[in-house]
TrEMBL record, chain A:
<dbReference type="InterPro" id="IPR033658">
    <property type="entry name" value="GRX_PICOT-like"/>
</dbReference>
<keyword id="KW-0676">Redox-active center</keyword>
<dbReference type="Pfam" id="PF00462">
    <property type="entry name" value="Glutaredoxin"/>
</dbReference>
<keyword id="KW-0411">Iron-sulfur</keyword>
<keyword id="KW-0001">2Fe-2S</keyword>
<keyword id="KW-0479">Metal-binding</keyword>
<dbReference type="InterPro" id="IPR036249">
    <property type="entry name" value="Thioredoxin-like_sf"/>
</dbReference>
<dbReference type="GO" id="GO:0051537">
    <property type="term" value="F:2 iron, 2 sulfur cluster binding"/>
</dbReference>
<dbReference type="GO" id="GO:0015036">
    <property type="term" value="F:disulfide oxidoreductase activity"/>
</dbReference>
UniProtKB/TrEMBL annotation, chain B:
<protein>
    <recommendedName>
        <fullName>BolA-like protein 1</fullName>
    </recommendedName>
</protein>
<comment type="similarity">
    <text>Belongs to the BolA/IbaG family.</text>
</comment>
<dbReference type="InterPro" id="IPR036065">
    <property type="entry name" value="BolA-like_sf"/>
</dbReference>
<dbReference type="GO" id="GO:0005759">
    <property type="term" value="C:mitochondrial matrix"/>
</dbReference>
<dbReference type="InterPro" id="IPR002634">
    <property type="entry name" value="BolA"/>
</dbReference>
<dbReference type="GO" id="GO:0044572">
    <property type="term" value="P:[4Fe-4S] cluster assembly"/>
</dbReference>
<dbReference type="Pfam" id="PF01722">
    <property type="entry name" value="BolA"/>
</dbReference>
Length: 150, 110
């Protein structure tokens, strides 16, 4: 649509063509096994973050910022799962292809891809993120201890 | 010695501008910024062994092409324009994007 289907520069450069081919192979590389493992990870909690490092020790500023935003929103730790892509090269490459998104972190809410750090930052600012997490019932419940009337 | 500001006229930056011009011919009509933030991330885990001074970029762009599209869709448009540069081992490591429609930009500016 916005990208010309045929880029003449590309077809004249054998190096670029090889690279395109390589990328194509990368694309085939996502085996059913890895695909299933990623799906399992995405289903493992209402809020799932693929990140670099761990929530306690993020290894990248964008992962750290995203963890911070989710924490500020009050995401319930019981409803949250994080996966460190640095621990697993198959996940690191696989998730990019699976989500069709070239960067980490990546957020999923109720199995739906939401976006990376910029998208989440902007959604946090506009209030969309709070709505989304509330709708997903992923937030720490408000203090209910004093109203035990049920 | 004066510290040199990170340039946005390196080969990667020039490619970015070229690709954006192909994909979003109207971007020059609006506010635009391309920033090279590579110095902020020099030598961190993800770019070790990558001597390139063009690894981290930030783009602020306005285009009518974003109208009616959600943020992830807008990001994907830019990502797919730059997919070769992002796939390379020595290519773009991180890309921060702020992508607005002209209306969104206007309402923010007021």
């Amino acid at each position: 649509m916005f990208l010309p289907k045929f880029n003449p520069i590309r077809s004249f450069s054998p190096i670029l063509r090889a690279k395109t081919l390589l990328r194509y192979q990368n694309r085939m590389y996502l085996s059913t096994e890895i695909r299933r493992a990623i799906e399992d990870a995405i289903e493992s909690a209402p809020v799932v973050l693929f990140m670099k490092g761990t929530p306690e020790f993020p290894k990248c500023g964008f992962s750290r910022a995203t963890i911070g935003l989710l924490g500020n929103q009050g995401v319930d730790p019981a409803k949250f799962a994080a996966y460190n892509v640095l621990e697993d090269p198959e996940l690191r490459e696989g998730i990019k292809e699976f989500s069709e998104w070239p960067t980490i972190p990546q957020l999923y809410v109720n199995k739906e891809f939401i976006g990376g750090c910029d998208v989440i930052t902007s959604m946090a600012r506009s209030g969309e993120l709070a709505d989304l997490l509330e709708e997903a019932q992923a937030l720490v419940p408000e203090e209910e201890e004093e109203t035990k009337d049920r | 010695m004066f510290k040199r500001a990170m340039s946005t006229d390196g080969p990667v930056a020039r490619t970015i501008l070229k690709r954006l011009e192909c994909g979003f011919p109207d971007y020059k009509n609006f506010a635009f910024g391309l920033y090279n933030d590579s110095h902020k991330h020099k030598g961190h885990a993800g770019v070790q062994g990558n001597a390139s001074a063009e690894t981290h970029f930030r783009i602020e762009m306005v285009s009518k092409k974003f109208e009616g599209l959600k943020l992830p869709q807008r990001h994907r448009m830019v990502y797919s324009l730059l997919q070769d540069e992002m796939a390379q081992a020595n290519g773009i490591h991180a890309l921060q994007l702020s992508l607005k429609t002209p209306q969104e930009y206007e309402s923010k500016a007021k």
